[in-house]
Amino acid sequence: MKIAFKILFFLLISWQTFSQDTYFLEGKLGKSIIYMEITEYSNNYIEGNYFYQKSLKDIRLNGKYKEASYTLYFGNDYGEDFFEEKFELIKSGSNFKGKWKNKAGKSINIVLNKIDFNQFKKSNSYEFDDNLSLIKLFYFNFIQDSITTYKNQEIIWFKETHCEASFFRLGKTFSEEIKNNINPILASKHNEMILNQLSCSSPFSYNTGRGIEYTISLSYLTENLLGFQLFYSYFCGGAHPDFGGEGNLIDLHTGKKYTLDEIIAFDASVTTYSEKNFSQFASYRNTFFAPKLFEIINQKENFKMPKEDDDNYCTYNDIEIWEFPQWNFTEKGIEFTPVFARVARSCETPFLVEFEKIKVYKNPKFPYDF
């Protein structure tokens, strides 16, 4: 199943609330160019987001509107007594004008006009989720960070100057054909990571550009395949920090990214995830995948059920935690990490299954041996 790392922000909106109109705006705050998004909801609630052209880091807003009058706050839930920043705006068509204020009492006149997105050229194939991402991509600035090697092959690391999210490309020891196939895919993944980092904020805390800690580990490389793991831990506001991982296996000749079910098939009913066939996919994972994977791992680990008075939440005998594990394709085999509820996230540890134990289950459509 394709896992795309996305940061979700949840706001307390009544069940009657639904989105009405969204405005994409640009203007100047003092001498600085800013870009803003304002979304109306049916109960006169509004939420917004803006960023400076120089920093690209989201500053999230929320507030209220009545007729043509809009008030948005950063630092409080549209409260009058305390805020870090405040926009008092009047709407005229698709444009807005008014004042920006801060808690120290500073006030700046501001005019915001509808954005002409035609001025921002889409320079890569990354599929962004919102219009303002197109603007951020336009201003990305990549610089080379370092050069390393993996299995005697050159790996070049790049960083983007607006935040912390370093990622790699294939270097000069790879053929031009392979670099032309794979480096655009790696660049697209890097764009995704950067956009996540730049949006890692809440209406109550400023984005530092370091809210997500990325760890990238190259784990497999042959003349045909590139494997790497992306691990991330993040706190972007809300009740708790969190973490997760994503396994990647890419065909160096075609650029195809293999899903786990395209690599391993525990039954002929195996299918890859899609919204249309989710029921079939979930049935396979529940009926065949999870029980067989647990059986293979348990042969080595011999898991024991915790006693009733044991505070250990790591119940690895629960088949459900093996239905949708994280995975990482390594030189020795595939690492599987079961997924627990938040209260037991500390139990998430990888278990290596050597290739010898699973090569009999290789998906017949997977074109390479392991």
In short:
This protein has 370 residues and is an alpha+beta fold. 17% of the residues lie in helices and 35% in strands. It is built from five helices and 17 strands.
Would you mind describing this structure in some detail?
This protein is α+β, with helices and mostly antiparallel strands. It is 17% helix and 35% strand. A hairpin with a 4-residue loop joins strand 7 and strand 8 (107-114). The two termini are 20 Å apart. The model is unreliable at 1-17 (pLDDT under 50).
| Uncertain segments | 1-17
Question: Which series of helices and strands comes N to C?
Answer: EEEEEEEEHEEEHEEEHHEEEH
In total, the number of strands is 17
Give Rg in angstroms: 24 Å
User: What's the tally of helices?
Assistant: 5
Helical residues, percent: 10-25%
Mean pLDDT: 89
In percent, how much strand structure appears in the residues?
A: 35-45%
Class derived from helix and strand content: alpha+beta
Question: Strands across the major sheet, in which order?
Answer: 1-2-3-4-5-6-7-8
Note the gap between the termini.
Answer: 20 Å
* Silhouette: globular
